[in-house]
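Section 5.1 Outputs to date
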Amino acid sequence: MTIDERRTLEALRDDPALLPSSEEDTGDFNFGDVWNGTESLPISHAGGEFSDLARDVLGDVWKIQNGTRGVRRVDNRTRRDRVLRRNEAFTKQIPAMTDAYLGWSLEKSKMGHRSFFDQFYNEELDEGSEWAMTVVDAFFAEKVILKISSTDHTVTSALVCQGVLPCSPISPVVGITIEALELYRVAHLRSPHLSVQAFVKTMSDLHGVEFHRHLSRQFSIAFDLYLQIRRCVAAMVAKALQRDSPNWRLKHGCPACSYVLANEEQLTFKMLYAMDGNDSLKRVLRRSLDDDDTLDISSELPTGQIFTSDRYLSRTFIDQFIRDLPSATGDESTPADNGCKGRWKNMDDTKTKKAWGIYDETGVFVAVCRHGFCLLVADMVQSGELAKYPLAVVARLLDVFGDGLGGGYDIGCQFKVTLDNSSLGPLVRSLNHTCLVGAFHGHAHRRLCQLFSLTTYIKGLGIEDLETCERTFSKSNSLASSLRYASVFHRQQAIDSYFEHNDDFEVYGNLSDFLHNNYKQALDILANGNAVLPNMMRDLGVADDTIFERWLDEEKAYLKVNMKASSIALDTAMAMFSMDSHHETASYDTQVRTTRKAKSTRRHVVEDYERNLKLVQALECKLEVITRWVPEDAEWQKAGRLVANRRYQRALDCLEGLVVARIFELTKMNRAGTGYKLCKHIAKALQTRSVAIRSALNTYNTVATAMSPPRQTLKWEEVVDYAFLADFDLLRNARADVSQVPWSTPGARSAMDLYFKMCRAQEEISHLNVEICRLVTSIRDEDNYLRTCEDQLMFLSPALAHQLAIHRNTRGQFNARHLKRLHDISTLPGFSGTLVPGLSARMGLGESASVPDVIPVYVSTDNIPTDNPSSPVLRADTHEDLDEEEREDEIAEEVYSNLQDVLLVTDDFARLELNDNLVDLS
């Protein structure tokens, strides 16, 4: 540091105009009222009110005695200006603080990892400038004097060199120790419910002082700064390892999925992943009110902070798939294409529209691999779970991984139609991407959908249930309370930090347990199947297990036939019958009575009538009808019987399909080995289906009574008591008697399910043998690569080498546990794999199996601005400023929390009214 720069720092420290000001707006305040006792003196956190009182009384004498100190600057900055200038000033100094952090971290490791105050009291103050400030640690807070040496670029970097992060970029008077910030970071990631305010209150209790709002704001400022420095360090480590390409993390996040070996067994699916949306991580969109009490545009406070991550999909990338939405392309699937449409909340986006005015981000859409590593995250912005989010995820995964992907989605049947009709359709088909339905959600889909998409019946899938997102959300939902009123930047920062920590410390730490549990489960399924299936086949009189594949095809064919529409001739007869009936009964007087309140509606009805009349005339010409049919004509009666029979068959098919699905799912729910949650899920789906059965039963009874002669009617008590197809006498009156086919019996269905489970278990063992060898090889190669890179950097950049050692230990701390768990797998009876490491198929730059060639990375501090006393200086935020920021946030949170409660109550009333209407209709 030059002599001029040192003088500048000393001038900044001694300049009273730069010290934190506690001045409040006192234009309407009369200090004379304080002297006569009519008003109390307002005392702020920073003090100074008594001096203002004395200055008001003494007048010119005070100015003479105190010189320029009597002139106090009025702070006319708005909160927006303060935040933007503060963040901008910090951003310019980030390179210097990052370099200082690297040096502090290395020095701390050499000194035995002592705390700040232990180090401070045991060190002698070197020659140089001094800086007085309050340093806050987890258990202590004290005003100390820190040193500023000639090698420090700025005051902030000088503080970071000593393990303190300032709360202000210029003239900081309060700093937080890095140890305290790291303690909160780790504690918050382990328990996301822990907020900044709760942690600061805890420290206040430990310090024995009263909590104030500005303490939380100061801690938040320092914590954001700390996370930004950590991201810079991580970027430097990635660049030194030549792993800074945009897709590196995505390609190498999961060693069991992506660490491909040479000459390994080819799997049916190169990678299995699951994706789903979650509406727990919402964020309230703050809006201001106009004069007429209507919502204005967003009143979000711009902070100038932009979060970037290779885990997040940008809004621009996602919005390019808007044109592929079904409503935009007109390619919505028909009920025959997707019988499950309307049964899922995320298939109906209209249910979430009422929340768009409150929330900006209405949740997140996440993709995870089958082991639980987070692949991609996308914010759902002012919408429900639109198709553009899974389309963007599939597009990115196809671009990175190529062919052979299998994606599980709770509405995979509907999404497959959307994906085929989208702009990605040709690419998806060429790369053989497969849309699947998870086992948990799949049992609530229609039976035909299950046969084509459920995990049990998909070859090459193993015993994977594709419900990893549900387990991921069960943990990430704890973030919801702290993100509801956060800014865009802080919300994305918290979500990304959580998934990064979860991948490194939870998912990777439990990876070998995942492999061990799945291997053991697959062996148990095979052992049980080999003992039970032959006896079941003998009871059924089946000699070859290939019959089960044929039975599955027969069931598919049966359900497909029953869901097809009637022939074109029947459609024509139905159209003729209904149109003639309308012509005879819909008189002009009836139309006038029904459209009396809307003349325009009457005109539309007349236009429709004329258009339909022309269609009737055209049909009469095609059918060579000379005289128009009337109810007394034989042709009318013949067509009527045909239409009535068609209605009866349709009602019968609908009721039959619902009862068949119910019986099959009851069998699944009551089967031994079905988990509690799956049983509850199936029970809920059955409850919903029961409403549909009741409606279908009412329709059937109405049509059956109108038949000539009348057909047998059924009661609700009879239908709900049916347990097997053989007990359902109604099915024998259907066009095909399904109760007599072999695959419909309970014993045959149990044998089929056991057979397909054994097939999937055998596939799982083959899959796990490949993944075990990948993990063993990855552990060996990664450890060797990182240690070699660390040795090379030790001579070039010791500070960066120390950070690389920390990076190596992040996942390396679990390697011993993994190797022990993998050894346990090798001792299982029936283990057919190997623990011998293989050879990686990837040898490019940065790959674990490649020859290390590190790139030394240095922090550029050439453009860091130095303090100039003649230029405008950013004044430090006062306690009142920070208190006001916290107070505004608390008020906004309370307002929007109350608004959310009102919406929830309104939604409850709407649901109750809907249920009452359903009861009345039934």
